[in-house]
Amino acid sequence: MYEPHVDRRLFLKGTAATGAALALGVTTAPTASAAPGGFPDYTYVRTLLTPSRLAYNPTGEIIFPTVRGVYDKLSSPLGRYYLYYAPHDAPGGVCLAYGDSLEGPFTEYAGNPIVKNTWSPHYSVSHVSSPHVMWNAGAKELWLYFHGENTTTRLARSKDGISFTYDKVVLTTSMLPAGTTETSYARVFPHELPSRGAHYVMVFMMNGTANHRDIGWGWSADGRTWTFAQEPLVRHGDVGAVNVGGPHLLYRNNSTYVVYNKDKESGGDILITEVGNDFSRRNHLGVLYNSRSAAPENGRAASPSFGTDGGVPYMIYEAGERLSGAIAVARG
């Protein structure tokens, strides 16, 4: 079950293509830009979700947004767009908000959390978090990748984006070199790697005994069973950071890029590296989005998710210090 290859050189236009753009992480509007790689120069628009205003708010923090256009995929969705997010600290919990525009407003789903830290008989953990949702066109399902604990990434599947069926563990520290202590914050994208027989790619955060976080990656034929590179895709030291995380793939000019955030101590910005369609390049291009010192960012932007609404590119991301921030939107 895999999505057919999409020629990423094409610029998708209008709302009919919005869902495909959201599913693939494509920024599509040919906008004048000062950002590297020809990408839009994103500008903060507004805050979308603030923990203190949410009914489900066990820890006063939320992280890791993922936005998906569902109006052309689901029957009678709550809104045109589904925005998934979660608290990180125990108990966490995968949450949903919905709206009709990427600029908001988004309405909190009354039944949050839709995935909890206990799911009998599959697991019972301190927390679940970092929800990434991918549209699987072959299965006609939304596939949810999430972590809990920080050593384990899991997969659940849904026909409506709200009620999920547990599938399996897809990534653990045991699948990486000895000394790996964390494998989490994973995002999965349809991506053709013919030489590896793969139709999907995963990017994620990995940590080890040296306690410096890097970006890892893996590939899969079906999105369920994975092979992982044993060396990082992006090393923290190569981009002048203490830690990097929150990776996302983007496509432009017939090439593939990984976007990720620096820790606040290293500047708190969102960086971009060209890895190429076969992931063999390491062309570090610098800052894609410079976090502002003003609220709500307060010097940190992280964990971006990208989409296009009516031909306009958007980035939805964590704004603010880790575990005390909000979810915000920027427009390209």
Features of the shown structure:
332 residues; mainly beta; 4-stranded antiparallel sheet; 45% strand; disordered N terminus; Glyco_hydro_beta-prop_sf; TAT_signal_bac_arc; Secreted protein; signal
Note down, in words, how this protein is organized.
With 332 residues, this protein is an all-beta fold. The chain has a single domain, classed as Glycosyl hydrolase domain, family 43 (Tachylectin-2, Chain A, 5 Propeller), CATH 2.115.10.20. 2% of the residues lie in helices and 45% in strands. It has one helix at 18-24, and strands at residues 43-49, 63-69, 81-86, 95-99, 107-108, 118-119, 123-124, 129-136, 141-147, 152-158, 165-172, 180-193, 198-208, 214-220, 226-228, 244-252, 255-262, 270-274, 283-289, 301-309, 312-319, 326-331. The chain has a four-stranded antiparallel sheet with strand order 1-22-21-20.
Identify the CATH class.
Mainly Beta
Element order: H for helix, E for strand: HEEEEEEEEEEEEEEEEEEEEEE
The CATH topology? Tachylectin-2, Chain A
In what range is the share of β-strand residues? 35-45%
If classified by CATH, what would the architecture be? 5 Propeller
Walk me through the topology.
Elements: H1 18-24, E1 43-49, E2 63-69, E3 81-86, E4 95-99, E5 107-108, E6 118-119, E7 123-124, E8 129-136, E9 141-147, E10 152-158, E11 165-172, E12 180-193, E13 198-208, E14 214-220, E15 226-228, E16 244-252, E17 255-262, E18 270-274, E19 283-289, E20 301-309, E21 312-319, E22 326-331
Antiparallel strand pairs: 1-22, 2-3, 3-4, 4-5, 6-7, 8-9, 9-10, 10-11, 12-13, 13-14, 14-15, 16-17, 17-18, 18-19, 20-21, 21-22
